[in-house]
Amino acid sequence: MSLANTKQTGFALCTWFSPSPHAGDFTFTLGGFHPAFDIPDHYPNPPRLGITWGLSDHLFIRGEAYFAVTPKAVMGGGSLNAVFNLGVLYAYFLAHADFLMTFHPFHFVADIGVEVGVEFDLELLFITIHISVHLSAGVHLAGPSFGGYAYVDFWVFGFTVPFGDQNDRPPALTLDQFQDLLLQVPDSDSPAASSGTTVSKLHVLSVETGRFTEKQTDTETKQGDIWEVKSGGFVFRVQSRIPLQSITEPAFTIDPNAVTTSSAPFYGTPMHLKNQLTSTMTVKVQKLEDEPGVAPIDQDFRVSAQVLKPMPLTLWGPCTYWHIP
Fold it and tell me: Measuring CA to CA, which of 57, 114, 116, 269 is 20 to 30 A from 193?
């Protein structure tokens, strides 16, 4: 009697929004995640996509596959296992491939392997001889820097040949490298976004209303530039590419309904930081100099609105890439 053919499927698509502590996070997976990926506690973990196929009473085939995308990584892989059992003769074939790549910093690991085995019982007169042969080979790759090892197991002996860089973990970025990375990330809310350019600043200042001249647009404002503004009706915006937990304005009137503080942790993921970071922005407005006939700028500004948005977890989430057995 032939074995029944069966299939199993696992699928999940999740995204988190404010006020969830995981706001900005998402995952899409078919069949779960890479075996070495550290799955966050709030992620679903569906079973592998799989098929079980009994071709006959003696031949049995099983296959599994998975693919997943998160803000930090993309991964995929699968395996194929075939078993032939004729009683006195048993043989199997197993092949697998797994791939995992993180985005910031860019790093990947890949494993490919194959294994075959045969077991046979030979009857000779009054004795039975059991013959067993197993062969396996595979390669492990990681990069950059590129390296890995190849291994071969010939039943009674085996060997491993390393090559290239043997560090499996992605390198930690320095502070300067991390800052350069932040400047490369486009910000859809920045004044330059609407003009199709990227603002190369960690902090962006722009005049909303109250500017005297329109000779220089907000997207052209550079560090150290002087704004010529009206003493009344002057509205400006300060925007940061770095998560802010609090903002201080020494001479400003703060509307308690417009400003909130956050204790949400952030870490600087590409720098492999395990301890939480803290950040505070201080905003000051002052005149360049006193000029005759020019009314002084009123220092009593009012903070009227605060715009909150999620930050990318690839940059600011906990440093969990994968575990190395």
Answer: 269
Q: Where are the domains of the chain?
A: 6-164, 174-325
Cα→Cα distances 310→242, 246, 314, Å: 11, 15, 12
Condensed to tens digits (0 to 9), the pLDDT of residues 1-48 reads 334 455 556 889 999 887 777 777 889 999 999 988 888 888 999 999
What whole-number distance in Å separates Cα of residue 241 and Cα of residue 97? 38
**What predicted TM-score, i.e. pTM, was given to this entire model?**
0.64
pLDDT tier at 310, thresholds 50, 70, 90: low
**Token pair for residue 159?**
């060997």
Contact 113, 95 (CB under 8 A): yes
- Token readout for 231 is 């003493």
Task: Give the whole-angstrom CA distance, residue 42 versus residue 72.
Answer: 15
pLDDT tens digits, 172-194: 777 777 777 777 665 545 444 44
| Run of H or E including 177 | helix 175-184
Residues 6+ apart with CB under 8 A from 224: none
Instruction: Report pLDDT digits (tens) over 44-66.
Output: 999 999 888 887 888 889 999 99
* CA–CA distance, 104 with 119 (Å, rounded to integer): 47
DSSP reduced 3-state for 59: strand
Read off the DSSP letter of residue 323.
Answer: -
